[in-house]
Amino acid sequence: MFELESVRKRLEAYFPGWGRTRWGELFSSALRHENFEEVNNVWTRNRDMRKDIANLICALLELLQCTGEQGGNLVAAYFSTVNTERQVMFDLHDNEWARCLRDSDRTATYAVVGDACLKLRARGNPAASCHPYEPHATLFQTGIVFGERIPVYADFVQLEPSEEMFRVNRMGSRTITLSPIDGQTAIRMLRLNVVTATEVIEDFNTAPEGVYDAIIRAGRVSIGGMKARRQLLLQQPQRRPERREHRRAGRSRRSPTEKPSKTHKCTIL
């Protein structure tokens, strides 16, 4: 997320000039490296920079605290070019892959609208369009590893830790295309050609061997993940609570439209 231009510009408003500092340059360079281990190297070799790096990371996570899968929707922050913070909601019924982004005891989701469009090139494929107003099926890309055996076409795959199930549409040497299925409870009970797979949380370059590039396609066609063309570009930001309201909502999750607290303290490990 730190490599998204919109995210960097937003953090620049809270930490002016951070990218031009010594620690900011080292941290940015490590993020761009193909091996994520470089980020760990910057952290372990520069103890004097840990406080600044940790505060930057915590500020972004605090800003995105209310994003992720919530109440049947995937909530993502959108940092526009007009210096306005908004959020957009995607219905899980039209984007079933978003169920994989539910928080678990191992993972937490912080979602930001990015700059790239993911599409699957194939003749007659409803997921091959990136036009914002053309109906198409949205996609989710991740890395997975299989347990006891590798699936074949039409097998069912149960993805951990979300426990969501999908059907194999296409199988390559190191790629797999999946689609959502109905009747997941019955399939779990009958164990019909179910193969267990685990999502790779680590960086691809440091992940174990046998990682497959998985593309999960939505089961329904939508318009940019929505049932209908948006009349407004994005949802307006939520109003910041007044001081008294803020006290009553002290433990509520922050909105991505709120500025991180200036007094926010981060625990340095």
Summed over residues and divided by their number, the pLDDT gives a mean of: 78
Instruction: Tell me the span between the first and last alpha carbons.
Output: 22 Å
Radius of gyration: 20 Å
Apparent shape: globular
Relative helix content? 10-25%
Quick one: biggest sheet? 6 strands, mixed, barrel
Domain count: the total is: 2
The strand count comes to: 9
Structural class assignment = alpha+beta
> Approximately what portion of the residues adopt beta-strand conformation?
15-25%
SSE arrangement, N to C: HHHHEEEEEEEHEEH
Q: Counting H and I runs of at least 4 residues, what is the number of helices?
A: 6
**Biggest sheet strand line-up:** 4-8-5-6-7-9
Unreliable residue stretches? 232-254
Region (Disordered): 236-269
Biased composition (Basic residues): 245-254
Question: If you had to describe this structure to a student in words, what would you say it looks like?
Answer:
- The strands form two sheets. The chain has a six-stranded mixed beta barrel. It has a three-stranded antiparallel β-sheet with strand order 1-2-3.
- It contains six helices and nine strands; from the N terminus they run H-H-H-H-E-E-E-E-E-E-E-H-E-E-H.
- The radius of gyration is 20 Å and the shape is globular.
- The chain folds into two domains: 1-116 and 226-269, no CATH class; 139-217, no CATH class.
- Helix 2 packs antiparallel against helix 3.
- It has 269 residues and is an alpha+beta fold.
- The chain has helices spanning 5-14, 22-32, 37-45, 50-63, 184-190, 243-248, and strands spanning 68-70, 73-79, 85-91, 139-146, 156-160, 164-171, 175-180, 194-199, 212-217.
- Residues 245-254 have a biased composition (Basic residues).
- Residues 236-269 are annotated as: Disordered.
